[in-house]
């Protein structure tokens, strides 16, 4: 058995979650009624659970390639962006209105990850212009061309 | 020769306009690092809803062809492959650009892409009807095994680990069962109201291909990519054509290798380019010059990755088995218009099938013509900061998935699957088999149910599904693909140290 490195620990947790999903799917498939409706899911779930448990056991024993995992620096980098993206998708788009939420999320993400210095006034102007152009294109494409009616809610 | 009757349809103003749009847009998107052809096609699908089936497919097909070719621009000028298919292109293409032969490298790349691409589409034209007729002999049990074959082949060949590839395929097949059962109307795995209608394929495709890319860009942080495009000097096109004719062997090897690899389900353009490069090097008397800016290497790689495009659609259009992840996304584009590949496509919608295929042939020529002009602009787009790309792709993904059915549920599904896929990818799982499972799941299930009904009225399940020449052949191919990939995985580990495996 090899030493417990961070990628290996993450791999054990990841494959453990997949195995837990596999077991749950298998349990539901074999216990829910009417059984005829679960004929195909049972077939799939049986293979799913075997492969998932196999992967989990191999991960625990350290017998498998574990992938790159996520380093602390990567996690630190992606966490704010992911949090903003999730707030935008699961709350703001519906709560504030699609276009308002997209404008805010786009501008924040652009400002967060833009390599240009945050102290330079010019770079802020550039970000505002980029956001405005992007929103104009999105409005033109989806509202005017495709005629998609998006949630308006508090704003627009 | 049925395809000739439908040639005129490609040149109607709307169809030709869409072909031009897809080609030019695809060249620019392809040159953008981080925007893979699969993701570009997935993001384009929502724009095809309001179009007729043939028009939608023309746009998607043109984007597929030209994103693969456009990826060469950033590979040559920035040493960043625009798509995985262009990895081999960087080896000699970028070195040529460094030597001041950037324009020549771009011209050779587009010319050889067009030659390879035209050959590949001709294979598609002549092989597809033959295979589609053969598909007529398929009953429910064969179609069930074919769907399983599609998932296992991509699962085992497109993944670093066979078990994880197959597991991804299983997850996809399971996700496809979510929602109401077609026959009994029973609820299956509906854990949230958003899942009531099942998982929408388009929303899932966007999430699985776009969101992991967005998060990957976030993970890089505020890093300045620092990629600086090499300025290109003018070069006469005549010189590039002469150079191409001088390197017929490399072009032939690239075209043939790409076409053969394209026909094998699950093997993508990345492999086609690298194998063609390697083979061309083996057969060349100037093999020592490979990697030092030798045109032969560039020609072999680029002709191969575009020659792969046409043949990768042969198993898709005849047997519903996509030859590459991008072809899987195209299958999603077909299904949303209610068109099923195989005999249904060629018997009931020949206009759609042949207009689409013909447009790919014309698209190869347009790609070559415009590629040479768009290259400069595409190189500028390739320098767009990752932060902007991430925000743009996220916005497009949200609007695109919402526009499918005007449902926030689809946006939630898209985001959840995308975030899940990012973490799974970090541990060696692959999106392609999962997508295949999701797309082929309903086909596998409906044929399994039909087959089990026939079986219960005849000899029983085992004789119906496990006997007969065609069933046994398909089962043998399923097992062979898994065993072969398992063997290759073990062999590659033998040459990898224990520490590397544990890493």
Automatic annotation (TrEMBL), chain A:
InterPro entries: DUF1468 (IPR009936). It comes from the Bacteria. The keyword Transcription does not apply. Signal peptide: none annotated. The chain crosses the membrane at residues 12-30, 42-63, 75-92, 98-116, 128-149. The keyword Transmembrane applies. Keywords: Membrane, Transmembrane, Transmembrane helix. Residues 15-151 form the DUF1468 domain. This is Tripartite tricarboxylate transporter TctB family protein. It comes from Litoreibacter meonggei.
From TrEMBL, chain B:
Keywords: Membrane, Transmembrane, Transmembrane helix. The keyword Ribosomal protein does not apply. It holds the Pfam family TctA. The chain crosses the membrane at residues 105-127, 134-154, 195-215, 253-277, 316-340, 352-375, 387-405, 434-455, 461-484. InterPro entries: DUF112_TM. Residues 18-436 form the DUF112 domain. Signal peptide: none annotated. PANTHER family: TRICARBOXYLIC TRANSPORT PROTEIN. This is Putative tricarboxylic transport membrane protein. The lineage of its organism: Bacteria, Pseudomonadati, Pseudomonadota, Alphaproteobacteria, Rhodobacterales.
